[in-house]
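notes to self, project folder thing:

trying the whole complex as one job this time. last attempt i did each chain seperately and stitching them together was a nightmare. two parts in total, labels are on each line so i dont mix them up again. if this works i'll redo the older ones the same way
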Amino acid sequence: MGASLSNLTDNGATMGPGLGDIPESCVACVFLYLTPPEICNLARLNRAFRGAASSDSVWEKKLPPNYQDLLCFMPPERYQNLSKKDIFALLSRPVPFEDGNKEVWIDRVTGRVCMSISAKAMAITGIEDRRYWNWIATEESRLSVKAYNYKL
Amino acid sequence: MSKLGQAKRIIFLKTADGQLFEVDEPVAMEFEIVKSFFDENEDAADDTVVPLPNVSAEPLAGIIEFCKAHVEFRANGAAGKDEVKKFNAEYIKEKSNEQLKELILAANYLNIKEMLDFLTETIANRLKNKSVEYVRAFFGIENDFTPQEEEAVRKEYEWAFEGVDED
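result (full assembly):
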């Protein structure tokens, strides 16, 4: 930060036309107003942007307040010693729980918690009655089987 | 600090390029660096000149204009109202990226939180949905990565673009 400021005063007239040397702490403030994919994209600009894009102060604002609860579904060795950015990345992929019948994850853009629930985890009237319902293996769904209703 | 009934106090600020600014006390106290200067030197004479060796005259003039308006908005109870938004939009409209950068550097050095928040939000809006190449060209940001580092950064952030189509 000091370096870029002294550049400003030493040769203010010869500076380039842009934002090239704004300090990392200011870039981190800019990131508070951007979504995670935008931040990850801009990390490729230069070293200052990359530095700000891996700062915990930026990512703890992007994580939902209850992210610790989501980590509980994982073995601790998967998230111990990770930066906040890496925790966000980890939780942006579905985390299975309750025998894989439910999944939670963080939406990459909004940072909100999402959940999907398999039909296996729902209480459906007559689900065991083969005249009405069947379980069909499928690749269309992440949750491997879907409930098929014949007539009701 | 001026007391009630006293004449309005003027604070003298001197920029890196040697210009002297006379600023009303409430406006100058928006600058955390000036405020702490006087907090630490309580018996500073009224005509003390505060040196600002990291700020030149042009951005300082812009900053004073912004802070003066915002001090008045607060005094009039207009803070957060449409009037303020309108002023901010007008204020930033004519600023080039270069001027914006100089304002950020100066506001960061002077430590003016409200203005810094506003400036960083403005930059964020100008960066939204832009490609890296566009931002580098448009904002004059030099790629200081080695090819290996560039590849490493790309890999590091791959997860953010899974399942998103290339544009």
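what i see at first glance: Chain B has a mean pLDDT of 90.
need to look closer tmrw
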